[in-house]
Amino acid sequence: MVNGLAVCDGFHVGSWRATYGFMLKITIQEGARNVSLKLEGRVVGPWVAEFERTWHSLAPSLDGKKLSVDLCGVTYIDSEGREILAEIYRQTRAQFSADTPLTKYFVEQAQNSNSHNGNGKGASNERSLWV
């Protein structure tokens, strides 16, 4: 990660490129009271691990800051990547930005994922979706 930017480029992971597409770009912008996590590209294969590493390194530094996750540049997220989105939502109640039916679906899945209370509807009725 350099200057808040993590890039996983398919050209550097050999055969993964043929299977999983080109790249994932992760941009983090930190403000005094909020943090923005922007994903662009496909969250699949080795890029899921990069997304997870980025999230786990970012989470401890939130310290009560509001997190927003921008999925407007995302073209696909596999099941492991969607699990990370659900984890982010459960831990932070992040606000999501989504602009296509597919990314809106990913947001809805994250918000409705199994929660600590186990009802599959999230810990509360609160939902945040920016369109």
Task: Describe this entry's structure for a reader.
A six-stranded mixed β-sheet has the order 1-2-3-4-5-6. It has 131 residues and is α/β, with parallel strands linked by helices. It is built from four helices and six strands; from the N terminus they run E-H-E-E-H-E-H-E-H-E. Helix 2 packs parallel to helix 3 and helix 3 packs across helix 4.
Overall domain count? 1
Q: What is the CATH homologous superfamily assignment? A: STAS domain
Architecture in CATH? 2-Layer Sandwich
Main sheet: strands, sense, barrel = 6 strands, mixed
Summarize model confidence as the mean pLDDT: 78
CATH topology name, in short, is Transcription Regulator spoIIAA
Shape: globular
CATH class bucket? Alpha Beta
* Helical run tally: 4
Our estimate of the beta-strand percent is 25-35%
First and last CA, distance: 29 Å
Low-confidence stretches: 1-20, 116-131
Topology at a glance:
Layout: E1 5-9, H1 16-20, E2 23-30, E3 34-43, H2 46-58, E4 66-77, H3 79-92, E5 95-97, H4 101-111, E6 129-130
Helix pairs in contact: 2-3, 3-4
What is the compact description of this entry?
With 131 residues, the protein is of the alpha/beta class. The protein is built from 4 helices and 6 strands.
